[in-house]
Specification:
Strand content: 15-25%
Structural class: alpha/beta
Oligomer: single chain
Strand order of the largest sheet: 2-1-3-10-4
Helix content: 40-55%
Radius of gyration: 21 Å
Distance between the termini: 39 Å
Order of helices and strands: HEHHEHEHEEEHEHEHEEHHHHH
Number of strands: 10
Number of helices: 13
Amino acid sequence: MKIAALTLTACFASTIAHAEEVSIALDWTLNTNHIGLIVARENGYFADAGLEVDILPYSDSASTVLLAAGAVDFAYMTALGFMSAKAGGADITALWVTMQREAGRLVYNSANTEITRPADLQGKIYAGFGSAWEDALISTMIEADGGTADYDTVTLGTGAYEALATGAVDFTLEVATWEGVNSDLLGREQSHFEYADYGVPEPQGGYIGAQTAMLQNDPDTVRAFMQATAKGYTWAAENPQAAADILINAGDFPNVDLIHGSMRVIDEGNYLTDGTTTVGQIDGERLTTMAKFLYDSGVLRGTDGQTLVWPGDVASWFDQGWMRD
C-alpha cells in the first residue's frame, strides 16, 4: 500500500509539474457571470485538461486591453468591451459567450407615477456610468416609443443604484441577474423596461476570447481551455445552487444570498441555456446585428475618436472551431 501510495503521489506531482500555465483576466469583480470558470477550476476540469489556470481579478486595466497587449492568454469581456476593441483593430477573437439573453434593463422606481413608458423619460434625470453606449441605448428606446431623447445625465457609477432608491435620480440601467437581485433583497420596489421591446437589438453577453495569433499558433491549448470552461458552465447550468456554493467558497462575498439569488434568476430565466441552445454558443446573426447597431449609433470609434464605418461583415470576429473537435 505504501508503494502504491507513493506511486500515485509521484504521478500527481508529475502532472502538476507539467501542467501548462494559462491566464484569464476578468471584466469585473468576481460574480456569477464567471461561475463556469470557478467551477472548472474547483471541480478539476482545468487540471484534467493539463492546465493550471490563473483567474486574474479585475484591475484598472480593462480585460480587452490586457488581452490585446498579450499580457494574458484569455479574457472575459463584456459585449460592448469586446466589440469596441475588435472594431478598433485589436487582433482578438471571441470563442465563447455566456449569456444567451440580454440581462440588462432600464429601471425606475415603481412609485414614480410620472414614468409609465420610455417616452416619459424625456426631461428626467438619468444616473449613468460614462459610456457612449448608454446614450445610444436610452435615446433609441425613447424615440422608438415616440418621445424625444432629451434627458439629463449624472455620472455616478455604482452609486446610481442608491441614488435611484432615494429618488435623487429618475432612472438608471441595471443587470437583472445581479443589481436586480440585490434590489429585491433590499426590498426596493422597482419597475423596468426591456431594451429589446424598444428598438435595441438583443445581444448575447459575456464573451471569452483570445488573441487571434494564439488560435493559429497554439490551438491545442485553446481547445483544452475552452472545453474545460464549457464543462464548467454546463455543470453550473445543470446544478445552479451547488455552483453558487462553489463560487461562494472561492470568493469573498459579504452577502451569500446575492449569489444564490443570482443563480436562481440565471436558471429560471434561461440565461445560460434555454435547453436547446448549446451552452456558450455564439449566434453570429445576433453578434452582427448588435455590431451594426453600435456602428450606426456612432458608439464604435477609432483611436482618433472618429466614428468607424461599418465593415460589412464581422464573421471573422468569432471562432468556435474548438467546439467541433
